[in-house]
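Q: My labmate handed me this sequence with no annotations at all. I'd like to see what the chain might look like in three dimensions before we decide whether it's worth expressing. Could you predict it?
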Amino acid sequence: MLGKIKGAIQDRLYKNCIEEYQKELHYQTDPYLFWVKENEEDIRDEAYPNVEVVYMEDCDKNFSLHRTNKEYLIFASRQGKIAQSAFYEILQYFATHEDVNIVYADEDVWMVEETEKIQKELKKRSENLKMQEHAHRIFPWTKPMWSPDTLFSFLYFGNIFAVRRSSFLEIEWLGDEDYKKNIYDFVLKATERERRPGHIEKILFHAYQKGKDRADIEKRVMHETNFIGVGRDYDFIRISAMTRRGWQGTMVEDKATGISYPIYELEKKPLVSIIIPSKDHAEIVKRCIRSVYEHTTYPNYELIVVDNGSEQKTKTQLEAFCEEYPFTYLYQPMEFNFSRMCNMGVQAAKGKYILLLNDDMEVVEDLWLTRMVGHASLKHVGAVGAKLLYPNSTLIQHAGVTNTLSGPGHKLKLHDDGKSYYYGRNRFIYDMIGVTAACLLMRKDRFLAVGGLFEGLAVAYNDVDLCFRLCDKGLYNVQRNDVVLYHHESLSRGDDLKDEKKLERLENEKTLLYKRHTKLYQKDPFIGTLMNNGENEYVCRWLEGYEVVNMFACDKMLAQGKKLPSTKSMNQAILIVLEDCGKEKFAKAIARNGKEKKSYYLIKGWAYVPGMDNARYQFKILLIDDNGKVWELPVQKRYRKDVASILPDETNVELTGFCSWIFDGTLPAGTYDLWMTAKDGCSRQRLYRSMERQLVID
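A: Here is what I predict for the chain of 698 residues:
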């Protein structure tokens, strides 16, 4: 009888271990759920008497701000749910940003069709409420910092934004039957005030989406373009906004997509100087120049070719070609330096606007220059870029620069432009951290005011550096995805990634870029942290170890343990691979209060018990000082797909990774031997193993 009871207890304990393991594995194999778990704190239910929710669908012709009576209004869609923390976060933002009167937040998707099935399954497994809340949240929409040109394309505020009611009582309500038009008109008017809208980089809304499964929903949402503000029905609102702002222009619809784009008109058609750096590629640059002449309706431009020392044959060909298609030919032998060549061209330029154009570009549509010049004329705009496709294809080469974790890169590269991606990133006009100098247009005086291209970046990232400096001046770099050119990429100087020396130079120039712009290292306010991975796709990225906000606050949780048993009595069955052990000099950990930053010691690696079900074991790190005194340090398990792949015969080894942090000042200075212990959750068994490493605490 006693044996049966003991067996039942062990079975129950084992089942609990498996359930806990599967729950944690579920989180860690989904980077978004893991992000949610680590970043979203529980918010207590509180009353907010000065906040009122206004559902967008109720904002018809009869709606008026004067009918509301609370100081803070949260506009939200009924087609979803407001996050539990939204009221708190919005009020906190307004309280700490007294100069902001309108603020928007990030959101994600709530899988409606999956909800009932998932809740039943989780209830069966006795999971907690928080797990149920997260289980059907997918596809985060991380919105950019205030982006006026993006807003003029569509309501990128999405399904939730909030205002100080008293600041907008004087705005005239459009009064249309369609609430979407009223909302879009209101937001355009509200953001024309001097104060910039704010952005809360937290998920404060969950938009309902129905579908047969997760993949079906994500695929549909990824390619969606039917948002408030998209299409001809909203053009009268944009035209009215142009009039209020003193802009001359029209809206032109792309028949293929149904998206309309503004063309800002300049009465005097100022001169545009097109600067083309080139060397020893006569046929390539001739094709580029010919395409400009054949596909440009803008009436006032000049071409300047800057040649850094082509052979005589090429020089002769270009001088002869100049008779057929006129251009200024600046010939000066020197080492290749793209920045210097462009700066030389600008010095010789007579135009009010300059366009930097690679010699391997090909113009394929007539209004390209008209659209770019008009946009560059706006007071808030720095550089204007175009969408670049690979020749005679619909494959994307460039749709704006994103400052990713891996460095400046081109999202959507090699994706088919026949589809829209991630809230129209290749369809709508977007404000971005940068655009490529393969086709970059801006006012000449602004180019000179920021010092032109930095000649210390001879080959790469000089355009990104320029765009960063424009952002520092409060200007916006604009990606015009309705302007399309062909880019015969790498024809001019080859593919850097296939040449070891060029790759080394590329890395050196990237390092120099971030030395000049330390605040933008691995950061891009136009995409947000959550989606800022180094991949071409718009997907949620994994958290790095130093970014995990809810770290174990080791200054509170580091506990003194018992002395180690004798080595003769130890079961040393643990196998350990230690990958990192030392002080993190550059990354800074954020303590639980969200304010205090501390440097820390990081211990990272992976460990498992061979031949056993590793879901049963809870691991801790042991630190032993010179006197044999022991401290126990909890570990965070980490998903290690790579480890699981090399241990196919072991059981439940996906979570063999471990990370632990020790904040400065937690332990006395000294040298500590590192051990690991593993406690079996189904018995009294405890395992030990030395890591055969020491940690030195300053």
